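Quick review question:
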């Protein structure tokens, strides 16, 4: 495909043809964030980031968004407090030929990060879903660097990115006109109005929304599908979208569960962004991008474990479903705390395309430091095995009481001459904290019989 694309671009004037998109390849931080130095190499498909709370997972997504779009979704990153060394954010894109590095140093006088001069890379469409329900959207056709800036030609004052608060996803995004402070520009009508409008038109856009909802549904038996439009209040004249529930009723989308609302918002913004991108590309006389990058904080938020098992695979397919083409490339960078999600990836995880990164805290020279390490991916098995693995380091996939009792039991089992009184105490702790069919009882009872500690009345836990 690449040679054909190059020939096609050569036949058009500069600035036309397909938008060439570059994957995020590498991110390096020096003296910014929780660690003195941090490096991460991204796979071209799925990148999962996990670790304890407060070590910098969401911060890393914010930096990745800035590297991709040169805008901040939240407050700009600041250098490490008290550091006298240079604070640098360096990132590289994996282009068609090689990875090109872009270092940015913090300038104390301007209080900003100074990027590398010249035309920035285009990452394709970028969608950043935050855990609080807010979204950030970047469209290469509407938000990219002004193509005629170096020629001295005026270009429209378009937004650097579309930053949606949670309420604005639903009710619409507006801004004051940069050319006329008395005028308000509507950047997005919002989910409620657009969904209702698309449904009334019964055109291709509504079909795409239905396809996105279907693809991101929790299961084949529980498909997300729009119901009939309704009204929910005398004081709200908007036609309200509804969702068909598996128990036969239709529920207004604003009254649906937190999980359904989050997936509905993601589906809507994907369709809205893709439609607006296609229209903008037509106006610019260029082909739409063939790439999207998802940044998702706590991808499993609000989702039932059964939904967690499917959500990543669904995201990998949703853009192809929307565009009607298998040539759409999807790169995912997602933060997760879900062992179920990691277990669900075992059949499809490819170390050549995917990666798992773990934030951890280590003690070096009496000082605690945050480190980010790539996991040597291998199959751990079920969710409980992932919980007990070094990725989550939980020790036991049980209650704290059961974990404490089992730890005491194993310590006693390591002794050559165990004490009967201690055995009886631990036995009662195990019985009060674990069910009778817990697998640990097999080893415990066998050891107790072997050492003559298990009496007749304690044959069964």
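Suggested answer, residue by residue:
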């Amino acid at each position: 495909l690449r040679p054909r694309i190059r020939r096609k671009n050569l036949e058009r004037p500069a600035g036309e043809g397909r938008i060439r998109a570059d994957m995020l390849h590498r991110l390096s931080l020096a003296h910014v964030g929780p660690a003195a130095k941090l490096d991460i190499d991204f796979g071209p498909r799925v990148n999962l980031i996990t670790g304890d709370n407060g070590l910098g997972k969401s911060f890393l997504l914010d930096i990745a968004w800035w590297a991709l779009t040169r805008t901040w979704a939240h407050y700009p990153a600041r250098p490490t407090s008290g550091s006298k060394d240079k604070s640098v954010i360096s990132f590289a894109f994996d282009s068609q030929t090689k990875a090109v590095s872009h270092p940015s140093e913090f300038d104390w006088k301007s209080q900003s990060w100074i990027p590398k001069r010249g035309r920035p890379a285009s990452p394709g469409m970028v969608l950043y879903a935050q855990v609080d329900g807010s979204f950030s959207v970047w469209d290469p056709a509407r938000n990219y660097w002004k193509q005629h800036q170096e020629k001295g030609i005026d270009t429209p004052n378009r937004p650097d990115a579309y930053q949606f608060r949670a309420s604005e996803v639903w009710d619409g995004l507006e801004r004051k006109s940069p050319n006329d402070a008395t005028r308000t520009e509507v950047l997005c009508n919002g989910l409620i109005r657009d969904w209702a409008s698309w449904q009334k038109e019964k055109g291709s856009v509504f079909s795409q929304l239905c396809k996105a909802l279907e693809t991101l549904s929790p299961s084949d038996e529980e498909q997300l599908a729009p119901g009939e439009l309704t009204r929910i209040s005398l004081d709200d004249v908007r036609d309200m979208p509804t969702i068909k529930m598996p128990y036969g009723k239709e529920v207004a989308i604003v009254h649906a569960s937190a999980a359904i609302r989050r997936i509905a918002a993601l589906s809507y913004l994907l369709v809205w962004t893709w439609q607006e991108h296609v229209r903008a590309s037509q106006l610019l006389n260029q082909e739409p991008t063939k790439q999207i990058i998802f940044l998702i904080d706590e991808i499993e938020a609000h989702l039932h474990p059964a939904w967690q098992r499917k959500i990543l695979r669904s995201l990998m397919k949703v853009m192809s479903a929307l565009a009607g083409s298998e040539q759409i490339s999807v790169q995912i960078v997602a933060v997760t705390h879900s062992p179920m999600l990691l277990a669900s990836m075992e059949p499809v995880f490819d170390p050549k395309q995917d990666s798992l990164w773990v934030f951890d805290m280590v003690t070096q020279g009496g000082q605690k430091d945050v480190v980010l390490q790539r996991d040597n991916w291998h199959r751990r098995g079920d969710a409980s095995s992932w919980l007990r693995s070094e990725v989550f380091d939980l020790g036991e996939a049980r209650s704290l009481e059961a974990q404490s009792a089992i730890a005491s039991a194993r310590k006693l089992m390591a002794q050559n001459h165990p004490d009967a009184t201690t055995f009886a105490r631990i036995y009662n702790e195990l019985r009060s904290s674990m069910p009778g069919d817990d697998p640990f009882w097999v080893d415990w009872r066998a050891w107790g019989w072997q050492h003559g500690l298990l009496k007749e009345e304690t044959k069964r836990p």
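Why it works: The radius of gyration is 27 Å. Confidence is low (pLDDT under 50) at residues 1-19, 147-154.
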